[in-house]
Design a protein that fits this description.
The chain has 21 helices and eight strands. It is an alpha/beta fold and 485 residues long. It has four domains: 76 residues, Orthogonal Bundle (Arc Repressor Mutant, subunit A); 205 residues, no CATH class; 109 residues, PTS-regulatory domain, PRD (Orthogonal Bundle), CATH 1.10.1790; 63 residues, no CATH class. A hairpin with a 3-residue loop joins strand 1 and strand 2.
Length: 485
Amino acid sequence: MALDQRSCSILNHLVHADGYVTIPFLTETFRVSRRTIYYDLDKIDDWLKERGYSPLKKIRNAGVYLEEKEKRKIQEDIKTLNERDYEYTTKERQAWIILHLMTTDRPVFIDDLSQLFRVSRNTIIEDIKILKNRLDGFQVALLSDRRKGYLIEGDEKSCRKAMVYYLSVIFPEHAWSVLEINKQKLFRHEGAMVFPSLHPRVFDDLVHFIQRCETQFELEYTDDVHRQLAIRLIFILRRIQLDRVVRFDPIEKDVLSDTPEKALAQRLMEHLAHVYRLDIPDDEIYYLATHFLGARVNDLRVQETDSRDIKKLAVIIKKMIDDFEKLALVQFQDREQMERNMLIHLKSAYYRLIYDIQMINPVAEQVIEHYPEIYHLTEKVIHRLEAVVQKPVPENEIAFMALHFGGWLRREGLRVRKKSKVLVVCANGVGTSRMLQQQLEEWFPSIEIIRTATTRNYHQYKHQADFIISTTPLADGDPSVSARF
């Protein structure tokens, strides 16, 4: 029995848990149904039995746990899973194909990929078709050549954008427990990734170096960020080795030049240039600085609160929360702390949008499915941020922001109140109806206007409404609120 990414992560939770792990905890953590969790637990049970371990202990209303005496050995087995014990999802396999093509210095053909991922040629051909379309969205081309095999071509900034996105597929935040498995793929010579001039210890060295530099430059990133940046750096170094380097506009460089993130990036690149004897162009330092700016932090620096960008974002977050309160019919009590916490997140999101750093949000689909009201409300207030970055905010970032709004609703014991559904009846034509609808929505954010209708056809829709607002008395005496316009 082979484990996939999520079942590996669940097993890792069980290994590190003190006592029982409840099913509700697992469904909330992985944003999947109880049925899916039970399916994964059965898969884990089969994997444990194949290796001579005791099956999972499942106690009704308590949860599941592992035998304490077996945990350490199981943890070592997770770290050393070989290819045959690990089951790629379609998304993982396609992400690895892209990352492989971006880092290899050898021709890659269909048979190579088929053998590497233990799937048929037809499966790889279908993957390639899908990936060609998806890379179009990054303005990157996936080409084929009879002698050179498959190649990825495009402006280096666009290639890096795609690379960072697919790295977030392989290393999502909730699945860092399978990091050891995926790290093995980076350095083994027969595997999906080959970094012949980098030592396998480079990942841990980079994490520790970033952590040491934080204090010096008065920055404090979250634990996940250390690992994300270390993984990205390994791939950035590989692109530099292959002479695929980014080019930065002088104006952009001038904006970044005095930031602590640029100073940190310079210190790190100088260290790597010395250790790995690389000639690292100046532009790569500025490119790395944009990743530090877009990375999530635990708090804002004192000096940072007076910066022009932060002051601008502070105004945006106030307006977003004001809009959200009106639309959700709630009032947050601890506004000052809420604004500060959401500003910390918004700062990172702002720079990710400015510098086109796309990341997958592993729980975006679950947020949209399980918390549609909060997501749609966030969608309605996000225009405040879009006006500043001058581009649409993608679904992943909206879902991140929705999680913050949802967290504050839960923290303060608030619930989004259901809006009253209103049918507007107007006899004065389409233009007047729309003007009336616009004014009513502005004056009464607690209502949802399902549609406008005339006195002749409103009967078709009145059963859908909680009440009716009409500019003229209704002939058959249907109860309505009179509106003069």
